[in-house]
Design a protein that fits this description.
By secondary structure, the protein is an alpha/beta fold. It has two domains: 136 residues, 3-Layer(aba) Sandwich (Rossmann fold), CATH 3.40.50; 187 residues, Dihydrodipicolinate Reductase, domain 2, CATH 3.30.360. The chain is built from ten helices and 14 strands. The strands form four sheets. Strands 5-8-4-9-12-11-10 form a seven-stranded mixed beta sheet. The protein has a three-stranded parallel beta sheet with strand order 1-2-3, sandwiched between helices. It is globular and about 60 Å long.
């Protein structure tokens, strides 16, 4: 066995950002050296990865776990550009998981596989835009105000943010403009081919908020929907019992234990959504939208809010992995000592 290191509670003592205390059964867990790939991969079927390494280090580490047979769901950005690695939001592009058999062949994985989460900020607008794509999205302008926990900070460890904002987040705007195109792309012979549009222009700012990324979105459509049409699409989108997408393909179902009862919550009050009031809607697994209007220039604008650590990171990673289990893509190797897919 790997010699245990710190207890989890000790390892995250200065970085625990949740308002609830660490559960006892979690705080007492041992923290092991992640570089001991052979030993750890022999003990787990699924590895969730969110680690502070340089890009090459992340690529080597995540590939090593997948090569040793583990299913890897990553919150890191290193593999996001790889056409053979799906970037999965289950309510938007679950069909990208169909690429996994081809990924295994291309990368030489036997039972292992690798998927990635998108950047945490894009949940607040990509999910709200998805049911509106039938109207033909031509361009998107998004101004994102991002919480300090997205940088791994608390108010205690980031005093410079008090009564302040930082009008630049390194690399964030490019991710916000590029990653939605992969999510909306098509699965091809050589992996995922990103969509050619819409054109997205993003501005990202760090603000004095603990949790919750807020996006102010303006959209130009080929055919401008009415407010009533938009509200109807949001109301009926992404619930676990939804029959399917406009193309007839199933989105996701009640077999995903972490799926929210309702994915998009519209708030009619003129001063909503607000991080303090709305970020924990559906236990942080939903998107809150408000301030919807269609102006005289036929531009649609709205404000979207999502929890950057839950839907945007850990919770979204669990949800994407549940979608893979539901499609019988994840192998149960440890408990059965056999190479068989986990039952849905």
């Amino acid at each position: 066995q790997i010699p245990p290191g710190n207890l989890y509670a000790e390892a995250v003592r200065d970085r625990w950002a949740m308002e609830t205390r660490i559960p006892d059964e979690i705080s007492a867990m041992d923290v092991w050296d992640v570089q001991a790939v052979d030993e750890i991969a022999s003990l787990v079927d699924i590895a969730f990865c969110a680690i502070n390494l340089d890009k090459e280090g992340v690529l080597r580490l995540e590939n090593a776990y997948a090569a040793e047979g583990a299913w890897v769901t990553s919150n890191n950005s290193a593999y996001r550009p790889d056409p053979f690695v799906p970037m999965v939001i289950p309510a938007v592009n679950p069909h990208h998981l169909d690429l996994i058999p081809r990924q295994r062949q291309a990368k030489g994985y036997r039972t292992g596989a690798l998927i990635v989460k998108s950047n945490c900020s894009i949940q607040s607008y990509v999910i709200a835009l998805e049911p509106l794509r039938e109207f033909g999205i031509e361009s998107v302008s998004v101004h994102s105000e991002q919480a300090i926990s997205g940088a791994g900070k608390t108010f205690e460890t980031f005093p410079d943010i008090e009564r302040n904002l930082i009008p630049m987040i390194n690399g964030e705007e490019q991710k916000s403009e590029v990653e939605p195109l992969k999510i909306w792309g098509k699965v091809g012979v050589d992996g995922i081919v990103p969509a050619s549009g819409p054109k997205i222009k993003a501005k990202c700012v760090r603000v004095s908020v603990l949790h919750g990324h807020t996006a102010y979105v303006t959209v130009k459509f080929r055919v401008t929907p009415t407010v009533a049409q938009i509200l109807e699409r949001w109301e009926n989108f992404g619930s676990p019992d939804q029959a399917g997408s406009p193309t007839g393909q199933p989105r996701w179902g009640a077999e995903l234990p972490s799926a929210p009862r309702k994915l998009i919550h519209y708030l009619p009050e003129p001063d909503r959504p607000q991080p303090r009031l709305d970020v924990m809607t559906e236990n942080g697994m939903a998107v809150s939208v408000g301030q919807l209007k269609v102006d005289n220039d036929q531009l649609v604008s709205f404000t979207g809010l999502s929890h950057n650590l839950i839907l945007g990171a850990a919770g979204g990673a669990v949800l994407a992995t549940e979608a893979a289990v539901a499609r019988q893509l994840v192998y149960r190797r440890i408990s059965t000592r056999q190479e068989a897919p986990l039952p849905a």
